[in-house]
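S., here's the first fold you wanted:
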Amino acid sequence: MKAKTIGYFKNVQNVGYCKAAVDLKVGMGVILDRAAKTANLPASADEAKACHRIVTNINDKPEMHNYSETVEVKEGEYVRADDLTSVANMEMEFADYEINGGVDSVDAGDTLVFGTDGLIVKGTSDGYKVYFEVIEKTAYMGKGILAVIRVQ
């Protein structure tokens, strides 16, 4: 997952003091418990519909020279959880492995939403606080999509 424009970084609001309750990856949707200071995957379809935060950690471990193509946030590590409602109508790219079902099942004009596994999945926007409108397929990370962040 990557933001397409510098405007995303100038406008996005995030919470950086919550720790991962489970292993997460960049691009996953998370639900924060700010009192307990934890970030977890949506536990139900209703939580997935309310999900509006996405994991956007960067590779901040300079001692790691060879790392996987996606940044993993291990249980107990701090999560940078961006609030997608603060960057409505901006563009974002997702890689094939960040989409449940992969890029091949997605076409321009499709709607993607957060699932209970944290990944985005093809669906309808009915009842979802945040969804993604696919603009086109791209070569991002080998195979990807470009989407607009929509907020209801």
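And the second, which I think is the more interesting of the pair:
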Amino acid sequence: MIDLEKLTVSKTYEGDNWLYFPPKKYEALPREHKDQLFYLDKGSKEHVYNVANELDILCGDDGWGNKPFSGGCYENVIKTESWATEEELKKWMYNCGVPFKSEVLLLPVFAPEDQPMLQTTWKMAVKYAETFFSYDNLIILDPKLKWCLYYHHDDIIYFAEGRRF
């Protein structure tokens, strides 16, 4: 069985590439939010990327993020291409049905090697969606591999669940 639930994480980020929360922005976060944000160490990060590649987590994609989940590996795939406000985006994510307390992994898709990978909760993924989705393509992955969300930089989001292994 593939295990993405026992990863080595840290409250501090040791690299120089501060994608989501540079030091000043991080310090301004409420303590309860900081308590839900963890950085994966290099070994855990490599493991997650290896598993994602091995499983073809985007299932049939063209390698550039233009056709995620097109290979029929998931029972249900929903997509949104438009939201007028941050609240609409959060509502769409909320309606995906993932419990707020669920752990998630945030995998930058076309990131440099020193890019941070986060482990957090679905609640924080929804709360800071605009921050997380303001860069490049991103995968938000359930460590139990029950579902996967894919954000494409053209503001298209896919949510897939019911992976057929």
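Why I say that: The chain has one domain: 32-163. The longest strand covers residues 156-163.

Talk tomorrow,
H.
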